Structures are given as structure tokens and as C-alpha cells.
TrEMBL record:
The keyword Ubl conjugation does not apply. One of its GO terms (molecular function) is tRNA binding. The keyword tRNA processing applies. PANTHER family: TRNA (GUANINE-9-) METHYLTRANSFERASE (PTHR13563), TRNA METHYLTRANSFERASE 10 HOMOLOG C (PTHR13563:SF5). Its EC number is 2.1.1.218, 2.1.1.221. It catalyses: guanosine(9) in tRNA + S-adenosyl-L-methionine = N(1)-methylguanosine(9) in tRNA + S-adenosyl-L-homocysteine + H(+); an adenosine in mRNA + S-adenosyl-L-methionine = an N(1)-methyladenosine in mRNA + S-adenosyl-L-homocysteine + H(+); adenosine(9) in tRNA + S-adenosyl-L-methionine = N(1)-methyladenosine(9) in tRNA + S-adenosyl-L-homocysteine + H(+). GO terms for cellular component: mitochondrion; nucleoplasm. GO terms for biological process: methylation; mitochondrial tRNA 5'-end processing; positive regulation of mitochondrial translation. The gene is Trmt10c. This is tRNA methyltransferase 10 homolog C. Residues 137-164 are annotated as: Disordered. It comes from Sterrhoptilus dennistouni.
Length: 415
């Protein structure tokens, strides 16, 4: 046994260790468990032959170089930045805690989350993303259910073999889209311009900019489907702005194919000032009729905090004529501000352009904001409005009396 161990040590020292140190093959030749077993055998033989020592210098060099290569291999893998990784860990902790956190969040949204100034702002932003994700899921579910119902109806119709005869020609959606594009292309040459002022990004929050872009997209879709569309201009439009990023999210590859004019110039540099009219609800001048020779400007802004006078001040600084829609002249206004959404403004202007009828155009105003149209018997309508207001005041007075009686003794009740 001792002779075999001595022979093994001589073979390792003379041939195997120098060869592994020269060619870098220590990882394949000597796994971690083999040198341990070899060292145990050598320790057992050391008690028998204390004068004999094993030269382990080459072996140490081999093991150190192997560790360095393993560290370099693991370190070469790309890692996510520490700030983003910490933000993802925070989101995971909040999700486990039961807070409103979206399931999927992009890198851009994660950066926006990190840029929020306070913890409450971060919670509100995550709640907004969570609600938007739920809305998308519900919309997708409804569309899937609608598709399934349509397929079932088609199957039932095919089973019964009932063919409906019609004198109308069926046009596929692709043909209709070509017709819409042709109208939009014709409007870029012969159509009346309509300007959207895209210089209100600093006055709005991220959510308000997102809602603004959604309304503009809906308005552009309505404009493209009309018989005589406007030639839409996006003026004061900056590249890589929040407006730009939101438009790319909605249109994707079709953004570069839209038949509209997008420019970073101001509208005063493109059109003459005497033809420009800025439409704003704060204007003291009321619009009487639609002028086909004028160029109307609409401020691309969703103002949920009701910042009055922002668009009017901008128009006055530029020396432009302003106008407001005659809502009180044709509508019995009930409650709410007289600010309309951008897609509602587009539909009103398109109807005025085609018909010059204010009653048809103002039907796009939300029904909750007015009681009806102003007709000849105005006195009767005013009487009903006065009666409604009196009932409201009476209910409010009763609420105040009940609250006062609860908080004070009976001898001090309100008479």
C-alpha cells in the first residue's frame, strides 16, 4: 500500500501537475472532489513518511487561475442597473403587500415611477397603471366575447342555409380605408386647415397629456371618415416630447403614414394672422357662424383642474382673434364648465362645416350639461328651471337643519 501511494505521488508531481498548469486544463482534469480525496490520501501517508513533502505550488496556481476565470465568466453577463432592480424589488414587495400594482410594467414606466417626487405620487402613478391595465383586460375580454358571439351567429346562419338577398353592394373594410385615405389626401391640397396647438405640455400632467392624445386620435378618426375632412395641422410639435411618445403608442407604424401636417413652427409663421381664429371657452366674443375662409385653432389641452384663461392669454400675446361657441344662446345650460373635449370640438366643427346648423352641431355636447335647446316658449322652460332650483335649495336647507339639530341642543334649533 505504501509503495502504491509513493508511486502515485511521483506520477502526479512529475507529469500531471506541470501539464495541467501549462495548458490550463485544471477544471476538466481535476474536479473539486478529486483533489480533496487525493489530499486525504496524502495526509494518511504523511504520518508514515514525515520527511516526504508534496509540492503544491503548481496546484495552487491552477486553482487560483480557475477561480479567476469563473469570476470573469460570471461578471461578463449583462446585469440590470441597480436602480431599476431596486425599483422592481419595491414593486414586488408592494404587490405582495396587496397594493394596486400593475402585473406588467415597461422600462419607460419604471423610469417614470422612479422620477416621482414622493411616495404618494408613486402610489398614485402605480394605481393609474393598474386601473389602465384592468381596463385593457376588460376591453379585450369584451371583444373576445363579441367575436365569439359573431362566430356563433355565423355558424347558425350557415346551418339554416338562409341567405339574405340585398340590393346594396358589400364593400370590404380595406376598400373603405382606401377611400378614407383618398379623402384625407385630397384635403391636404384643397381642404380647409384646422390647427391643433401642441404647446401646452408644461401646463398638464402625464395623465392629462395621455387623455389629450386619445381625444385627438378620436377626432382625427372622425375627420378622416367624413365626406369633406379638414386638413389637420399639428403646430408647435416637438420631437421626442410627451405628445410624440403618446402618438407613437397609439398609431405605432402608421404614425409616419398619417395624412396630416406635423411641424415645430408656430401657426403665425405658416398662416396670415388675419385669417386665424383661436377657439377658447374664455373668449368674450361669441362665434355667430362658421366661416369657411378662416383657419380655426384648437388648444390641445385637457384641463381637469380648470385653469381658466391659459389659451386666451396665449392668443392675446400673439395678437389673434378669439371666439367661443354660443352654448348659452342655443342650450339651456344646467351644470358643469363650458369646456368640451377635443373630439367633441372636432365633431361640432365638422357638422357646422357641412350643414351650418348649430342645433345639429351642438347635439354632440354631453346631455348631462344642459336641459334642452332654447325654443320659442322660453318662459315655460325658465319656469321649470326655477322650480328645479327651488327644490334643490329646499333639500339643501333641510340637510342643513338636520345637521344643525344633530350638533346642537334642541333649544337652539334653527327656526
Amino acid at each position: 500500500m505504501q509503495c502504491a501511494n509513493m508511486l502515485l505521488r511521483k506520477i502526479v508531481r512529475s507529469s500531471v501537475l506541470p501539464f495541467a498548469a501549462q495548458h490550463g486544463m485544471k477544471k476538466d482534469l481535476f474536479p473539486l472532489n478529486r483533489p480533496l480525496s487525493l489530499s486525504l490520501c496524502l495526509k494518511q501517508d504523511k504520518a508514515c513518511e514525515p520527511s516526504e513533502k508534496l509540492d503544491l505550488d503548481e496546484w495552487k496556481k491552477v486553482m487560483k487561475s480557475g477561480l479567476q476565470e469563473e469570476v470573469s465568466e460570471t461578471g461578463s453577463e449583462p446585469k440590470e442597473p441597480s436602480s431599476l432592480a431596486a425599483a422592481r424589488e419595491t414593486l414586488e414587495m408592494w404587490r405582495l403587500a396587496g397594493r394596486a400594482v400593475p402585473e406588467n410594467i415597461s422600462e419607460e414606466q419604471l423610469k417614470t415611477f422612479m422620477e416621482c417626487p414622493s411616495k404618494s405620487a408613486k402610489k398614485k402613478y402605480l394605481k393609474y397603471l393598474h386601473l389602465r391595465e384592468l381596463h385593457k383586460k376588460s376591453h379585450k375580454r369584451k371583444m373576445d366575447e363579441k367575436r365569439e358571439r359573431r362566430l356563433e351567429e355565423q355558424d347558425q346562419a350557415s346551418d339554416t342555409d338562409e341567405t339574405k338577398k340585398s340590393s346594396f353592394l358589400f364593400l370590404p373594410s380595406s376598400t373603405m380605408e382606401k377611400a378614407y385615405h383618398w379623402r384625407a389626401a385630397r384635403s391636404m391640397i384643397f381642404g380647409q386647415p384646422l390647427v391643433f396647438d401642441m404647446s401646452y405640455e408644461k401646463e398638464m400632467s402625464v395623465r392629462e397629456v395621455t387623455n389629450t392624445v386619445k381625444q385627438i386620435v378620436m377626432g382625427e378618426s372622425c375627420n378622416r371618415r367624413t365626406a369633406d375632412p379638414f386638413h389637420i395641422h399639428f403646430c408647435n410639435f416637438k420631437e421626442d416630447s410627451l405628445y410624440h411618445r403618446e402618438f407613437i403608442k397609439h398609431y405605432r407604424e402608421a404614425w409616419g403614414k398619417l395624412l396630416i401636417t406635423v411641424t415645430d413652427q408656430c401657426y403665425t409663421e405658416i398662416f396670415p394672422k388675419d385669417k386665424l381664429i383661436y377657439l377658447t371657452a374664455d373668449s368674450p366674443k361669441v362665434m355667430k357662424k362658421f366661416d369657411h375662409d378662416k383657419i380655426y385653432i384648437v388648444g390641445s389641452m385637457v384641463d381637469k383642474s380648470i385653469k381658466t384663461g391659459v389659451s386666451l392669454a396665449r392668443a392675446k400675446r400673439l395678437g389673434l382673434e378669439t371666439a367661443a361657441l354660443p352654448l348659452e344662446k342655443y342650450l339651456l345650460w344646467s351644470t358643469g364648465a363650458k369646456n368640451l373635449t377635443l373630439d367633441q370640438m372636432m365633431q361640432i366643427l365638422l357638422t357646422l362645416k357641412d350643414t351650418d346648423d348649430w342645433k345639429k352641431a351642438l347635439e354632440f355636447v354631453p346631455k348631462r350639461k344642459y336641459c334642452g335647446f332654447v325654443n320659442k316658449p322660453v318662459k315655460e322652460v325658465k319656469k321649470t328651471l326655477d322650480l328645479i332650483n327651488a327644490l334643490k335649495l329646499r333639500k339643501e336647507r333641510e340637510k342643513v337643519e338636520k345637521r344643525f339639530a344633530r350638533n346642537h341642543p334642541k333649544q337652539y334649533t334653527l327656526k
